[in-house]
């Protein structure tokens, strides 16, 4: 993880210090008229950054977090996290507190960033000194000088991706306008993540096809097999060893011999 964190949510009535917080994407347009000219200009610049081809996922996420910390009133640190198949995986952070708090959540399996990711709802901690939902987390947050937080879910195309978290050194740092603006940054980050995941999946498919083709070619050349028969050998070996076909193919392509274990 570098040190520098999607189903369309239904409105949530999750209590937060006596108030109900709706998902950030619900009613994003409401209140945006309050944003000043500098903020609108910065949003436009961020949109252009995210449109640059070959910008790279890491650079894109760093741009999102940097802009969020600079422009969202109250934010002094930020983190972007993935939540896939029950695993909480921090990706990019800005500031010293987020990685330490992320590590605690990974170890305990509970915390505001995990809940925002898993439940796809916005979680606000207005004062870590008084919030009782995650005692171990808030105790460490206070020690690190974090007195309020805002965790916004990342989602796109009905897929849950994770959460964008903002940290402040003062209590009640995030206004309603800041919450809506955080939703916009979360949307940018989610789209960047989804695009990167699709690209990565495509690269893996192409790479797997290539290595299987190489392995088939070796079997055809060394054993005089036809293409279908060579592939059948790979499948049979994978079943015998309880390993994926691509793993068998990788060994054969690298060593010239089928794996034996």
From TrEMBL:
Gene3D superfamilies, per database record: 3.30.450.40, Winged helix-like DNA-binding domain superfamily/Winged helix DNA-binding domain
Top-level taxon: Bacteria
A single MF term (Gene Ontology): kinase activity
PROSITE patterns, A to Z: ANTAR
Start and end residues of each ANTAR domain: 192-253
Protein keywords: Kinase, Transcription, Transcription regulation, Transferase
SMART domains (alphabetical): ANTAR, GAF
Protein name: ANTAR domain-containing protein
Organism listed in the record: Mycolicibacterium madagascariense
